[in-house]
Design brief:
Helices cover about 55% and strands about 0% of the residues. It starts with about 25 loop residues before the first helix and ends with a helix. It has 64 helices and four strands.
Length: about 1450
């Protein structure tokens, strides 16, 4: 700006009128007075007063002298500054001052005076405000643009204004400051870095918090000057971010904070800066990337941010950091997700895939924060999270880490309570997350006690809050139970059962404290304390805390009395809460805020306190059910059909009747149950019967009117009710009435007389009722029962096929398609078994005869008469029923002892049945008996046969059963040191001799040195040994090795003088020995003790016989690969976790004691020292591996490869084998024969000479129900075609049935030919049903028969005339032994039908060892072996578990592809 020098009148200063000279000679007060007049004069002047401007020019120059600018008095300086401000206004656009230095001094002087604005309460504040207003309005500082030192002036001005601004200033002050500063930025040529720093420093978070007004001032300034200042901001960030010139500004270290603030102020300020952040996101410096990620998280997540839509490349680049290698970066990304989901729901789709990956992150903290982010958003608004995101939380409930699992479970629980219980988002939202309740309860199946306790806590606080009013609480429980899925119901039942069991343990502990103090009592108390500790978290610490708590119980009578009330059956919910509070208060210590001991006691009290159920609650629940019956309930509104609600309510009452039976003792409750008993709904009546059975012990004495009304109903149900109703009615009578003998007689006599074999549909209920009467009162009806079994059950039912059925190629059909006659036969077998279980003695040889009959049914494929009138599915059902009946009898000591080795081996072959469902259900029955320690140890060896099962999930499930049963036995030995003398029947390692013996008599094992057959044996042995050898506790590997060595020094009891039989045994021993040597490094150590071998299987060791020969062919050694046995997390391997098994041991000594051939007592793992335990949860996992329950469970890859390789080899060199079955001919015309005579007709058969069915599992019940899952028609058809159809191969080891035409009577059979049999497939099989698994196959060519070693045998009949009559009848006969080698004439040679046994070889040939399984149900929990009744009372029930229907898809074999 150019300055022209105004005219000066001789340098004389003209003052306004009335103002005398202002100099240093006057006092300060006078100077102030005169200056005020000058200020008034200049204030009144305007720019148009040219004369006045010239007149007062010298005065203006005088006021700018150093005398005034440096005057010590602030009032003087203020008045001078006001004059100077007016002078700049008056003389604008030209200033009267020409010297740059003078101008700088003046503006620096004015700037200093502006500091007076800070004190808003000062008397001079208005003058300071006038000064600010004046220079802002005139833009006086713009004069400085041409000064060299203008930056210093502006910087000082900015600093001063930012310093003085405070919350005492009004909006005008703020506005004038912004005007003043913005004019400098907008009208200046440049903005220096120093000036920019002066503004930006106020945005730094630390300064922002110190002076909020300065931050607001800077924010307003930047908004006003955004366009002008943007290039300088861009340059600053470019220098720092791209060029790394951090020295250009002290704010370089706050660059990311500044970017965030600037973006929040005006995103246009960073138009050119944001692309630089994309570059920084890819920096090699972890900390730098982390800083950028934190910055962008805030920018993208801000509520009104549109950055993601405006800058998509940057958004995509940011999403890539979710997969960053640096853990804190991934963690920061995950934390950002919740803000993004809440503020930008439209970005949820982009985030979902990245959160999915991070939910499986190796880092626990990241997986945890994924859950927190999703749950936080869901709790704010459920619509913010999609189903996929909720599913990630669902998956993490099975995480390996407890912290992650807990967060996921608690998160789901909170969501459920908010949107389902409190219905904050309506019915649609409630429906969307209805799966949560099922999922949370499914977690109760996990092994971890922490998981179980958390589920119990969630149930009590979130699913059915215990603090609700009783009626509301029961209504909540009522509809919850009605809407749970089957597995969740079982889990809830199991939860109540476990709590009740723990309550009993605590009650027992209190009873022990009431006894006289003694050593036995102290030992019992210690044992009980240890048991209770195992039901608490961290059992190690829990033991110490429980010992301490036990001391409190002993010393503090108040705590003991409160705990006694808490665990008493009559404790109410309110009483329970009071007891818990009192005990907690007594044990709390104010000086110890964190008390682990108190926390552990709280866990115990939570588990045993009845906070939901008491007498009042049961009454409220009954009223709720009555409302549903009357139609006044809110069933439809709750989304439950009335019939289902009533049925579920009765089922709930049934379960509670096991755990809270005392709470049912009221007339009102029993009257309501009596009404339910009369309802038409079969399920409702059945549940009511069970409730009466569990709770009616005092009805006869306390409620006589209920007794008299109940009796006729029970008699009617026993005679005419459904199968299950009849069973429960009999047990009700037995439990309630003291005169049960009279009641049984009134039922037995009419049923006995009304039995009509020509009407099978009407026989099922009478047979069930009579069977249970026989079991409960065997002595009362011993004579009629014996004749009934002999004359009717055996002769008229089992040995008679009255109704020919429609033939089908399927091996299994749904329940409603099963022939009524077959269902009757199944119940007839069950009735015989119940009769025997009631007698519990074999004095009259009835048990022996029954076993022969059952094994004859197994031997004849289920067609006992062999007339061909029974369909394939019915034969499968009968085989299964016979096999399960043998297992049932084996659980009773007196019958176990009479089961021969041949019968045991024949029963074992059901595990390899050709029908999938037979294998499945039989395996489940076997596991159930073993898990309750009721079946002898040798039956565990049967699971080794599952190694040959073609279905992967069957092998995996069998492995799980083995793991479970081995753990149960080891745990039982630890807890019961006193039973160590019965180790032969408990120690899991003793299953090895039984396994070796069973495999040595495997019908598939025909040729001793056959490589393929030996590889099968190896797979079966490894199936058992792998689990036993996971841990080498107390040198158990050497113990097993010694056991195998000892077997080679004995002979097979079944053929001690048969060289081939013993050679097979020794060969199997060598296979086992090679497995042990290849998989163990400690096998050569000294065995802890000398093993004892069962004398029933092996002869006494011959000390003079040293069997050191190796019986294996040299080629076999290549198949033993070294390597340490690896445990498998069974929960992750299969989709059918098992129920918690009861550890109830046999009380009878005969069950535990097995006859042995040595007197030494051996135990390689003493219970006292045995610390470890084989458990799937102990196996090592990767850091982000999950404890998951998989739908399609694979076995361990290494093992699977070996199996598939072996399958492939077997498929190429498969050896045919099999034998014909012994013929049986039974006269049906003998009316007067005794039970023993009729049952003795069935001769025992040699298992080794019969074939085997291909390798299943589910429970059976009295009514033989086989419930199928709900499926679509397509699924049903697919199941029928793919699952119920046999493979294209003969049943392993079983030859085709012989007919009367096959070998003419009296004709001798030639010798010659080979054992083998080549098989070809007909074109019809290849084109038609080639892919089906269980359909009967026909083969064009059969192997040539050979003369049997033994003559044809028939079932004995005592009278010769019967035999004569039988010889003329056309009863089909079967040959024992191998078929003759000489082929029969073409006329006599039948077209043979083969039941395609699912051998491993066949499976390999069918699908190249690839069987894909689909499961319809939730992975975790199908086929849990916890029936609603059995899981609660802990006793062996005959309830059956549901079958999970599995669909098998098979790849075409090579021949089919060609």
């Amino acid at each position: 700006m150019a300055h022209t020098k105004p005219k000066v009148n001789d340098g004389k200063i003209t003052y306004p009128p009335g103002v005398k000279e202002i100099s240093d000679k006057i006092s300060k007060e006078e100077m102030v007075r005169r200056l005020k007049m000058v200020v008034k004069t200049f204030m009144d002047m305007d720019q148009d007063s040219e004369d006045e401007k010239e007149l007062y020019l010298n005065l203006a120059l005088h006021l700018a002298s150093d005398f005034f600018l440096k005057h010590p008095d602030k009032d003087v300086r203020l008045l001078v500054a006001c004059c100077l401000a007016d002078i700049f206004r008056i003389y604008a656009p030209e200033a009267p001052y020409t010297s740059p230095d003078k101008l700088k001094d003046i503006f620096m002087f004015i700037t200093r005076q502006l500091k007076g604005l800070e004190d808003t309460k000062s008397a001079q504040f208005n003058r300071y405000f006038y000064l600010l207003e004046n220079i802002a309005w005139v833009k006086s500082y713009n004069i400085c643009f041409e000064l060299e030192d203008s930056n210093d002036i502006f910087t000082q001005l900015y600093r001063t204004l930012f310093q003085v601004i405070n919350n005492g200033h009004n909006q005008k002050v703020h506005m004038h400051m912004v005007d003043l500063m913005s004019s400098i930025v907008c009208e200046g040529d440049t903005v220096s870095q120093e000036l920019l720093d002066t503004v930006l420093v106020n945005l730094v978070p630390a300064n922002k918090n110190l002076n909020k007004q300065a931050y607001d001032l800077a924010k307003a300034l930047l908004k006003r000057t955004a366009q002008a200042v943007e290039p300088y901001i861009t340059n600053f960030f470019n220098q720092v971010l791209m060029l790394g010139k951090t020295s250009i500004s002290d704010l370089s270290e706050h660059v990311f904070d500044l970017i965030l603030e600037l973006y929040n102020i005006d995103s246009h300020l960073l138009l050119s800066v944001l692309p630089q952040l994309e570059f920084k996101l890819k920096s090699n410096d972890n900390e730098e990337r982390l800083a950028v990620v934190k910055l962008l998280a805030k920018m993208f997540g801000a509520k009104d941010s549109e950055l993601a839509s405006q800058n998509k490349p940057l958004w995509q680049c940011y999403l890539g950091r979710f997969n960053d290698i640096h853990v804190p970066i991934r963690l920061e990304c995950v934390k950002f997700a919740s803000h993004c989901l809440m503020n930008h729901p439209d970005l949820a789709k982009d985030l979902t895939e990245f959160l999915k990956v991070r939910s499986h992150d190796p880092e626990e903290a990241i997986r945890h924060d994924v859950i927190v982010s999703i749950v936080t958003a869901a709790k704010k608004d459920l619509s913010l999270v999609n189903d996929q995101l909720l599913n990630f939380v669902r998956e993490r409930t099975l995480d390996k880490r407890w912290r992650v699992r807990r967060e996921a479970m608690m998160g789901l629980a909170q969501i459920y309570k908010k949107y389902c219980l409190q219905a904050e988002a309506g019915k649609e939202a409630s429906k969307q997350i209805s799966w949560i309740k099922d999922k949370l309860l499914h977690i109760y199946y996990q092994n971890s006690i922490d998981d179980k306790l958390l589920v119990e806590r969630i149930f009590a606080q979130y699913m059915v809050p215990h603090n609700l009013e009783t009626s509301e609480r029961m209504k909540c429980l009522y509809y919850l139970y009605a809407t749970l899925d089957t597995n969740a119901v079982k889990a809830l039942n199991e939860m109540w059962k476990c709590q009740n069991m723990l309550r009993h343990h605590v009650r027992d502990l209190l009873d022990l404290h009431k006894q006289q103090k003694s050593d036995p009592t102290d030992k019992a108390i210690f044992s009980k304390v240890m048991i209770i500790a195992k039901n608490l978290p961290d059992p190690g610490k829990a033991q110490d805390f429980m010992k301490k708590f036990d001391q409190f119980l002993e010393e503090d009578e108040r705590i003991r009395s409160q705990l006694d009330v808490l665990v008493s059956p009559n404790c109410s919910c309110k009483q329970a809460e009071g007891c818990v509070r009192e005990i907690t208060r007594k044990l709390s210590n104010p000086k110890q805020p964190t008390n682990p001991f108190l926390e552990m006691v709280k866990f115990l009290l939570e588990r045993i306190a009845p906070v939901h159920i008491d007498t009042e609650s049961i009454s409220a629940l009954i009223k709720q059910i009555n409302k549903s019956i009357d139609g006044t309930a809110d069933d439809e509104e709750e989304g439950v059909p009335t019939d289902e609600a009533i049925r579920a309510g009765l089922e709930l009452l049934k379960v509670l009747s096991f755990t809270h039976s005392i709470s049912f003792h009221s007339a009102e409750t029993f009257e309501s149950l009596l009404q339910c008993l009369k309802m038409e709904d079969e399920k409702v009546a059945e549940a009511a019967l069970q409730i009466f059975r569990n709770t009616g012990q005092k009805i006869e004495d306390d409620f006589p009117h209920i007794r008299s009304a109940l009796l006729p109903v029970l008699q009617q149900k026993a005679k005419k009710g459904t199968a299950r109703q009849a069973k429960h009615a009999i047990h009700c009578i037995h439990a309630i009435f003291s005169s049960k003998e009279t009641q049984f007689a009134q039922i037995f006599e009419p049923l006995h007389k009304s039995l009509d074999p020509s009407n099978p549909e009407q026989l099922i209920t009478p047979l069930i009722s009579i069977g249970h009467i026989a079991m409960l009162a065997p002595e009362q009806f011993s004579a009629p029962l014996k004749s009934l079994v002999a004359g009717f059950v055996v002769k008229d039912l089992l040995m008679n096929d009255r109704f020919p059925v429609k033939k089908t190629t399927k091996l299994w059909v749904p329940d409603d398609e099963v022939c009524p006659e077959t269902l009757t036969k199944i119940q007839a077998m069950k009735m015989m078994v119940r009769w025997l279980m009631g007698m519990r003695t074999n004095v009259n040889k009835s048990g022996t005869s029954t076993l022969r009959l059952l094994t004859a049914i197994l031997h004849s494929d289920g067609d006992l008469t062999e007339q061909g009138k029974i369909s394939k599915p019915d034969m499968s059902r009968l085989r299964l029923a016979a096999g399960c009946a043998v297992l049932k009898l084996a659980q009773e000591p007196c019958y176990y002892e009479i089961i021969t080795l041949e019968q045991f081996q024949l029963c074992a072959l059901v595990m390899n049945d050709e029908c999938y469902q037979v294998r499945q259900i039989f395996a489940q029955k076997l596991n159930k008996g073993l898990a309750k320690l009721r079946l002898p140890l040798e039956y565990m060896a049967i699971f080794s046969l599952c190694a040959k099962d073609p279905a992967k999930e069957r092998r995996a499930h069998a492995r799980q059963c083995l793991v479970k049963n081995i753990n149960i036995r080891r745990e039982y030995l630890k807890q019961h040191a006193a039973v160590s003398e019965k180790l032969l029947s408990l120690l899991p390692e003793y299953a090895v001799p039984y396994t070796i013996h069973l495999l040595a008599h495997d019908p598939d094992y025909v040729k001793v040195q056959d490589i393929e057959q030996l590889k099968d044996i190896k797979e079966c042995l490894w199936f058992m040994l792998e689990i036993l050898m996971v841990k080498n506790e107390n040198n158990s590997h050497a113990f097993i090795r010694k056991m195998v060595e000892n077997i080679k020094q004995t002979k097979d009891v079944q053929g001690p003088d048969d060289p081939k039989t013993n050679e097979k045994l020794y060969t199997v021993c060598d296979v086992a020995m090679n497995i042990i040597i290849s998989k163990s490094t400690t096998y050569s150590l000294e065995s802890p003790k000398d093993p004892v071998l069962p004398a029933k299987y092996f002869t006494h060791p011959d000390k003079n016989f040293n069997n050191s020969k190796n019986y294996l062919p040299s080629e076999m050694k290549a198949f033993f690969t070294p390597g340490k046995p690896k445990g498998t997390n069974v929960l992750g391997a299969v989709n059918k976790p098992l129920a918690s098994a009861g550890k109830q041991a046999q009380t009878k000594s005969s069950r535990m004691e097995t006859m042995s051939n040595a007197s030494t007592n051996s135990n390689p793992s003493s219970p006292g020292r045995n610390k470890g335990r084989l458990d799937g949860s102990e196996i090592d996992h990767g850091e982000n591996e999950d404890i998951t329950v998989m739908k399609n469970p694979p076995l361990p890859a290494k093992k699977m490869d070996k199996r598939e390789d072996a399958d492939h080899l077997r498929s190429e060199t498969d050896k045919p084998r099999g034998r014909k079955k012994a013929a049986s001919a039974i006269s049906l015309d003998q009316e007067d024969r005794s039970s023993a005579e009729l049952l003795d007709q069935v001769k025992p058969t040699k298992t080794g000479q019969r074939g085997r069915k291909r390798a299943a599992q589910t429970s059976e019940s009295d009514e033989q129900q086989w419930p199928e899952e709900k499926r679509s028609k397509e699924d049903l058809l697919e199941n029928e075609d793919e699952q119920n159809s046999p493979p294209k191969k003969t049943r392993r080891g079983r030859p085709p049935k012989a007919t009367n035409e096959e070998v003419p009577k009296g004709e001798t059979q030639g010798k010659g030919g080979k054992k083998g049999r080549k098989r070809t497939l007909s074109a019809e099989e290849e084109d038609g049903d080639g892919d089906n698994e269980n359909k009967e196959q026909k083969q064009k060519r059969t192997r040539q028969p050979r003369t049997p070693k033994k003559s044809q045998q028939r079932i004995e009949t005592p009278e010769s005339d019967v035999n004569d009559s039988l010889s003329t009848e056309a009863t089909p006969q079967k040959k024992r032994g191998r078929p003759p080698k000489t082929p029969p004439t073409p006329q006599s040679q039948p077209k043979k039908n083969f039941r395609g046994g699912r051998s491993r070889q066949a499976a390999s040939r069918e699908n190249d060892s690839s069987v894909e399984m689909d499961s319809h149900h939730d992975s975790s929990l199908e086929n849990m072996d916890i029936s609603q009744e059995g899981s609660v009372d802990g006793v062996n029930t005959e309830e059956e578990n549901e079958l999970s229907t599995l669909r098998v898809r098979r790849k075409p074999n090579k021949k089919e592809r060609r």
